[in-house]
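Below is a filled-in request sheet from our internal design queue. Each sheet records the structural input a requester submitted and the sequence that came back. We keep these sheets so that new team members can see what a complete request looks like end to end.

REQUESTER: design group, bay 2
PRIORITY: normal
MODE: inverse folding
CHAIN LENGTH: 424
BACKBONE (tokenized):
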């Protein structure tokens, strides 16, 4: 697919439960009992009260090594990974995404046939085979993201379509027909959703970042992007920060670029508000923001992972990364994607008061598809994942002032005055 220096074209009563990826707590309970109250619908799992959160972990997906590796998030320099999975189901993985249970969905471009594979935390740690393999013979998958319904969207290289697999299609191995298939141009690499449900696609092959609205994602076809941004020579992995800015890696230009909301509101060729360059860069690709707002960048050409602080993100310049993870001991060959797994943070809830049945918007960081939410010790009636920075949860029956907490495989959010919800 790629050359080493360049790419071209080329959650006790009787209940019925089943595992569904991307859905709160992995369980759907058709009936369950809580305090004598019958609740039907999606039910969340809750981390044990008082349980210590795991230490943050950095995950790197490597195209060249056909591997997924983990490191302590505090690691730097030429260090060996804590775990490495090189299961042969993966072949040239170009992108990956975690769900809240800690299952990693990996897009393998060069597997035969190409596939999307789901690895549990146990499988990742033991070099195990994936639990689920979605065979995609008509795709060359190169980007993966969950929408708010828990459906998985997959971008492709070499002119293959952007497709949607529903959460039901992800429960077992097979080769399902995509629910939606969209022709979106050539050689896309990386995708994400914004808070409005719009999908943003990195158009590496045609030099454009493209936005597709929820209405355009409903049915198969060849939609005209709602917004097209040009000006970068190899845009990949569009990624939003907690402030709503859009960051785009330029593989060919060896830069990471920031666009404000005003700049991506309409089509055009805006000059990025911030351009980060670095002598460490080769061909930057996958990105992730941690809870402190640090930007982590996987680099294909330089075989490394680099961290840039919020201060370094504030102005255009050439920076030495605050952290450099690179060298032969890391096992990196061609970095493709990166994720920092850590406990979520809740920064606000709105409204901050109401009764059972109130839909509460939770803002913060570290949210994932399938995140669990609790009001005090009671699981939310339902949870909708919006973005890594927003969830919507329906308040269950409870009394008084309670902490609203969010749980993922990275841990449970610490309580504070910012997460209080008062029952009225």
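RETURNED SEQUENCE:
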């Amino acid at each position: 697919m790629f050359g080493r220096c360049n790419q071209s074209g080329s959650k006790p009563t009787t209940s019925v439960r089943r595992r569904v990826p991307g859905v709160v707590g992995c369980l759907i309970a058709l009936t369950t009992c809580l305090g004598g109250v019958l609740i039907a619908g999606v039910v969340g799992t809750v981390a044990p009260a008082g349980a210590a959160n795991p230490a943050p972990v950095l995950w790197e997906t490597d195209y060249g090594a056909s591997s997924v590796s983990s490191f302590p998030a505090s690691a730097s320099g030429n260090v060996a990974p804590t775990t490495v999975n090189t299961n042969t189901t993966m072949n040239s993985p170009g992108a990956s995404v975690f769900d809240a249970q800690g299952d990693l969905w990996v897009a393998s471009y060069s597997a035969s046939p190409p596939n999307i594979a789901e690895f549990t935390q146990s499988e990742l740690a033991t070099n195990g085979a994936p639990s689920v393999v979605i065979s995609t013979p008509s795709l060359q998958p190169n980007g993966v993201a969950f929408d708010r319904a828990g459906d998985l969207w997959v971008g492709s290289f070499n002119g293959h379509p952007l497709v949607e697999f529903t959460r039901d299609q992800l429960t077992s191995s097979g080769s399902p027909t995509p629910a939606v298939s969209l022709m979106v141009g050539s050689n896309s690499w990386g995708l994400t959703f914004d808070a409005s449900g719009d999908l943003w696609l990195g158009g590496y092959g045609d030099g454009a970042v493209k936005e597709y609205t929820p209405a355009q994602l409903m049915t198969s076809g060849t939609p005209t992007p709602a917004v097209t941004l040009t000006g970068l020579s190899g845009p990949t992995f569009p990624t939003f920060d907690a402030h709503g800015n859009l960051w785009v890696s330029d593989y060919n230009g060896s830069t990471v670029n920031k666009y404000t909301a005003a700049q991506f509101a309409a089509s055009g060729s805006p000059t990025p508000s911030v351009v980060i360059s670095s002598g460490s860069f080769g061909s930057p690709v996958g990105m992730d923001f941690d809870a402190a707002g640090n930007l982590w960048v996987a680099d294909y050409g330089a075989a490394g992972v680099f961290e840039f602080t919020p201060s370094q993100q504030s102005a255009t310049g050439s920076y030495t990364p605050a952290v450099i993870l690179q060298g032969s001991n890391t096992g990196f060959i061609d970095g493709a994607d990166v994720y920092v797994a850590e406990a979520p943070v809740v920064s606000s809830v709105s409204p901050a008061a109401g009764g059972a049945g109130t839909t509460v918007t939770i803002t913060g960081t570290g949210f994932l598809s399938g995140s669990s939410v609790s009001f005090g010790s009671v699981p939310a009636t339902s949870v909708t994942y919006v973005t890594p920075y927003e969830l919507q949860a329906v308040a269950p029956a409870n009394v008084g002032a309670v902490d609203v907490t969010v749980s993922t495989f990275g841990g449970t959010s610490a309580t504070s005055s910012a997460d209080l919800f008062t029952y009225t």
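SHEET NOTES:
- DSSP finds one helix and 37 strands in the chain.
- Residues 10 and 67 are 23 Å apart (CA to CA).
FILED BY: M.R.
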